[in-house]
Every structure is written in C-alpha cells, then in structure tokens.
Amino acid sequence: MISKQSNTIFTKRVKPNLSIAQIINMSMGFLGIQMAFGLQNGNASRILANLGADVHELSWFWLVAPVTGLIVQPIIGHMGDNTWSPLGRRKPYFLIGAVLCAIGLVLLPNAASVTHMIAANVLLLAVIFLAMMDFSVNIAMEPFRALVGDMLPKHQGTLGFSIQTILIGVGAVIGSEMPNWLTKLGVSNVAAEGYVADNVIYAFYVGATVLIVSILYTIFTTKEYSPAEFAEFEGGKDVLEEPSKFSDMFRDFANIPNLMKKLGIVQFFSWFALFTMWVFTTSALATHHFGLSPQDTKSVDFNKAGDLTGHLFGLYNLFAIPFAFLLTPIAKAIGKKQTHALALASGGLGLISMYFIKDTSMLWISMVGLGFAWASILAMPYAMLIDAIPQRKMGVYMGIFNFFIVVPQIINGVFGGPIVSKLFGNMAIDYVVVGGACMLLGALITLIFIKSQEESPKEIEEEIQQVHF
Known about the structure:
The chain is mainly α. The chain is built from 20 helices and no strands. It has helices at residues 20-27, 29-50, 58-61, 64-81, 91-107, 111-118, 122-151, 157-184, 198-221, 227-233, 248-254, 258-289, 300-334, 336-356, 364-377, 380-385, 394-401, 403-423, 428-449, 457-465. Helix 1 crosses helix 8. The longest helix has 35 residues, at 300-334. The chain starts with 19 loop residues before the first helix and ends with a helix.
C-alpha cells in the first residue's frame, strides 16, 4: 500500500535513542540471513563441484548472487521507501524474502534428487535454486540496512551497524560451522557420485529453520515508525511530497552523494577480494594445502578441504564479533576512515598469509585479520554514509550503494575463472593472494580519498555510552 500525499504539517521532533535490546530485536533477522549466506559461502562451490562443475566454472556459477543483488536491492529499497502496510514499511519484505530463501535452502543441496524426479540437468537446476536463494535473501537483506537509518538517530548509526555486524557474525559462524559440527556428530561428509554429502544437506535444513524463526522474531518485536512520525522527523514536511515512480531510481542514482562515490571505490576492491575468497578457498586449500590435483573434486580429502573452508569462514566471522564491539571506541580514538583502513589492511594481509601458512591448523591466524576486515566492511562504510543520505531516500540509496558491492563480484565472476585457469594453472591460491592485494589497495584508497567525517564530541560520547548491556 503506497502512502498518499498529505497536506498536514507536523511539528519537528528528534528520533529517540533506542536501547541495546531494541536494536538487537530489530536486527535479529540478520542472524538468520547471514546463517543462510554462511552456508552458501562455505558450501556452494563444494556443492557445485560435487555435482560436476570444474574449478574454472565456479566463478561463473557464483555470478548468480551479485546479479540478483544488482537488480533486486535498489528496487526493494525504492519500494520500501514508498510503502506502508499494516505490517509496516520494511517488515513485509523481510517475511517474503525469508520464506522464499528457506525454500531455496532446502532445494539447493537436493538438486540431484530433484533432477531424477523431473529429468533436468543437475547443474542447471542447482544454479536455478541458487538464484532463487539469492533473489529472496536480497529481498530480506536490503530492508535491514534501511531499517537502521529509519529507526536510529544518526549518532547511533555506528552502534546500530555494529550490533548488526555482531549478529551477522553469530549467524555466519553457525552457518559456516554447521556441516563440520554435524560431521563430528556422526553425519556423513562423503558424497556419493553426483550427490551432496548428508552433513551439508542437513545443515541447510537447520539454516532454513533458523532463518524463518529469526525473521519472525524481528517482525513481532519491532514496531516501525509511521509515515506521520517520519514526517515529524523530517522537520514538518508532508508525509510524501509527491507520488514516487520507479523511474525516480535513475534520478536518485544520478544524484548520489559524493561521499558514496568515494566509498564505492573502496567497496569495489573490498568485495572483489571477498568474492575471490568465497569462491576459490576450497580449491585453494585442496590444491595448495592438501596437495590434490585441480581435477579432484570428489575424494575424501577434497571434502575435508570443503569442511575446512566452512571452519575457516566460521572463524573469521567469530573473530569479527569482538572486533564489532571495538569499532565504535576505535573510531572515536583514531577516526572512522582510519579504523576502516586499518581493518582492510589486516584483511589483505590475512588473505596473503594463507599462501605462506602451510600447516592447516595454523590458518586461524589468517582469519584474525579477515575477521577485523569483515566487521568493518559490514559497519563502517554505512556508518560513514548514513549522514549523507536523505531520510526519505534511505532504502533506495542503500540499494544503490549495493551496486558497489555486486559490480566487483560480477567482474570477478566473469574473469576470475579464466584467470585461475589460464594464468595460474588452476592453482587457486595464487588468485587468493590477488584478492589480498586488492584489499590492501582498498585500505590505501580509504586513507587518501575519504575525508574524515566530523561528529560533535557530544554525539560521539552518546554513542559510546550506548555500548553496554
């Protein structure tokens, strides 16, 4: 239901501070969303390899995620900015996206079984299920970013995104580690020819359940502000100045703030590196650390490499949790851009160190730096950006900002596989090092091109005081 124009003028008032508990409630759904992402990031390459994909094809299949994000997030953001229903402004999209993503989580690891029922190509079907997952998780994810801008006063922005990062870390740890935990409980991690191992299948079932429960928790515990209340926060403006059209998104894109453009360059190199890690870590571990040939995608050792990938991804998300607590005080001490640059440099060194650390039991050291980077990537760019975005355009601009996340992934997805195949002889670890170099470049760009965002001492002190339970 689209809100209609109103001639009523409201008295300006300031958004109230929210408690830690309220911010956790409104962000809890991100735990389930990131559990779904953790399962996908740690297991999609393994699933596709089990189903017959070659290493140089993996990045092409992974294109599904950024392409769907490129299309879906700005549209959902625009719709959310201009929607009001009995359920709220953002919450309808949480619910729809969660239900569809849960279905995708159930279907993706069972693509081989479904293939036998409908006589389809198994890889094609797996990519369709992956696309369904990515499409729906983007419907659910974008509104959570916008919700922080909707619900919090600007001086609580860093705190809000940091708490989201903590919950993201918890969800990702559970999702990344779930197959490994199930293996330790006796569930088989060896796949029959052309099928996916039971530990992965059951982990995806758990992920679907947690996703639905966490989204419902946010829906039932969070009350969004009404259009009238938003009008008051906007300084007495009408509820909507004029009916909004989809074509307005192109005008909004042309008018993106200068700060968003600069942060977009940093995001490009950051997410190029992350995509490299997500796609190629399993193959990098299998060939560089386990000594397997690039063509081995079904052996016991390959599946051990897959389990180790999930474990390592769980570790960097685990390390991101304490770093998320530290982001606000570190930013107060040295500045937001310096904090983000330090985090990206740590992540870049972490990726590069994977080449030199041959003992798999010591690879946790690499994940420490990546945890710091991941915590900052999920919080600091948004905390720096939030002051530059008009309140009534929060959703669409958060969606547009997603362009700078998905475009590098699309470019990497197109060219990453051929680079690994032709330039590095299918030794994916070399490309992981390239990803580390990109993250270091992102740190350098942050220091050189991003101007420090000024906040009054009072605002910073209020934000610091909020960090307690």
